[in-house]
Every structure is written in structure tokens, then in C-alpha cells.
């Protein structure tokens, strides 16, 4: 297998965190998004969508989304389980992950891609250029703020608000990850006493982050 990564990018970072929790080592190729390597002819032959992450399997199959890579690694390396054990747990994890991505990461991406100077004409991922729309950036900011407000309301009386990652079962430490700067720095926790070795390096690289607790008291970490 081969993993196509870009260290600063949020989506491949989520895969790195997943692999660290599983204890999986996969040969990695860094793709230079800043200088447009993902738009090159060579990379389009790997992923015509021009995005990372990509997991190239031994038989030539290419998985080009975080969700697909998570599922493949969960099925081929079932311990420790990171996406639930029972049917109910798996369904609740999937439900929570969908809400985080659609109501949290989507708006943050909309705000960033439509306002950052470095993303001029790159308002939408993929091979086709799209111009930025400032009104969409403002809408994304409002939607992201609403998401954080609603999610913090899910945990009355707990001093984690605003918080993004909230779901984990048993040995699972990682369920969802989001974008950097989605949360005010006053709410950020950036050290993880329970992480050692490679996991510690992966999480430190992903900070700043928020932590909450699983039912068994282990840290759940979300880079933002």
C-alpha cells in the first residue's frame, strides 16, 4: 500500500491520526498542495479528483476519501475498533460523523476557501477552478458558529464548549476531526499525556486540539 498525504491539510491528517491509533505503518508520499502538485498530470493519473488523501492498495485500487480509507483500515485492522463494536455503536458513530462533516467541516471549508488569498480560484476542490464568492465565506462563518453553539449545547454543565468531537466507544479514541482555527484559542487544549511514541508525534503535529472523555475515561482528540 501507499498513502498520499499532505501534512498541513486536515483530511489526510485525520487518516494519519487513525493509522496512529491502529498502530499501522504505511509508506507515505507527500503531495505539495501549496505549489499545485495535486493538479499536475502525474497526480491526476493517481486521483483525477486532484485531492488528498489517497490510499493506493496493493491491487491498484485507489481510495480517495477519508471515510473510505477509515472503513478499509477498520475492516482490515479491526483492533482496536475505532468506529464502534455493535450495530448501534457503529450507527451512532456514522450519524455523528456525518453531522460533523456536513454541519461543521463543510461551513468551515466554505468560509476558508472563499476568503483565503492563497485559495484564489480554488473555492471548490477538484480539477476545475472556481472563483471565490465573499458572500459564501460570510455564510460559512455563520454556519460554523451555529454548529459550535449547538454542539456545546449538547453537553450542558461541561466545560468543553465549544467542542467538535464528542463520540467514542470503549477503546476508541478517535472519531472525528475538523479544521484548524474552527474554535477560539481559549477553548484549545494542545497536550496529551496519554499519547506516547508515534501517536504522540501525530497528535502534537495535529494540535491545537480539543479533548473530551470516552465512557472509560480515555482522551478523545480533535485537531481544529
Write structural notes for this entry.
The chain is α+β, with helices and mostly antiparallel strands and 224 residues long. It folds into two domains: 2-76, Glutaredoxin (3-Layer(aba) Sandwich), CATH 3.40.30; 87-223. Helix content is 39%, strand content 10%. The protein contains six helices and six strands, in the order βαβαββααααββ. The strands form two sheets. A four-stranded mixed β-sheet has the order 2-1-3-4. Strands 5-6 form a two-stranded antiparallel ribbon. α4 (87-113) runs antiparallel to α5. The radius of gyration is 17 Å and the shape is flat. It starts with a strand and ends with a strand.
What's the short version?
This protein is an alpha+beta fold.
Q: How many domain modules? A: 2
Q: Detail the poorly predicted runs.
A: 157-196, 206-224
By DSSP (H or I, 4+ residues per run), the number of helices equals 6
Spell out the helices and strands N to C. Answer: EHEHEEHHHHEE
Cα distance, first to last residue? 28 Å
Tell me the fraction of residues in β-strands, as a range: 5-15%
Number of strands: 6
Tell the overall outline: flat
Rounded average pLDDT:
77
Class inferred from helices and paired strands = alpha+beta
Give the proportion of residues in helices: 25-40%
Using only CA atoms, what is the Rg?
17 Å
Amino acid at each position: 500500500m501507499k498513502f498520499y498525504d499532505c501534512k498541513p491539510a486536515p483530511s489526510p491528517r485525520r487518516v494519519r491520526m487513525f493509522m496512529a491509533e491502529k498502530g499501522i505503518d504505511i509508506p507515505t508520499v507527500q503531495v505539495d498542495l501549496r505549489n499545485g502538485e495535486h493538479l499536475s498530470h502525474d497526480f491526476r493519473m493517481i486521483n483525477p479528483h486532484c485531492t488528498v488523501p489517497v490510499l493506493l492498495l496493493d491491487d491498484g485500487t485507489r481510495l480517495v476519501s477519508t471515510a473510505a480509507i477509515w472503513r478499509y483500515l477498520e475492516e482490515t485492522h479491526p483492533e482496536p475498533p475505532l468506529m464502534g463494536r455493535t450495530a448501534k455503536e457503529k450507527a451512532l458513530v456514522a450519524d455523528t460523523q456525518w453531522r460533523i462533516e456536513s454541519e461543521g467541516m463543510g461551513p468551515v471549508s466554505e468560509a476558508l476557501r472563499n476568503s483565503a488569498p492563497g485559495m484564489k480560484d480554488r473555492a471548490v476542490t477538484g480539477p476545475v477552478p472556481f472563483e471565490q464568492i465573499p458572500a459564501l465565506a460570510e455564510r460559512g462563518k455563520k454556519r460554523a458558529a451555529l454548529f459550535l453553539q449547538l454542539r456545546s449545547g449538547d453537553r450542558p454543565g461541561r466545560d468543553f464548549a465549544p467542542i467538535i468531537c464528542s463520540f467514542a466507544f470503549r477503546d476508541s479514541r478517535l472519531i472525528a476531526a475538523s479544521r484548524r482555527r474552527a474554535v477560539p484559542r481559549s477553548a484549545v487544549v494542545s497536550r496529551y499525556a496519554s499519547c506516547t511514541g508515534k501517536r504522540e508525534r501525530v497528535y502534537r503535529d495535529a494540535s491545537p486540539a480539543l479533548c473530551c472523555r470516552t465512557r472509560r475515561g480515555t482522551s478523545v482528540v480533535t485537531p481544529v
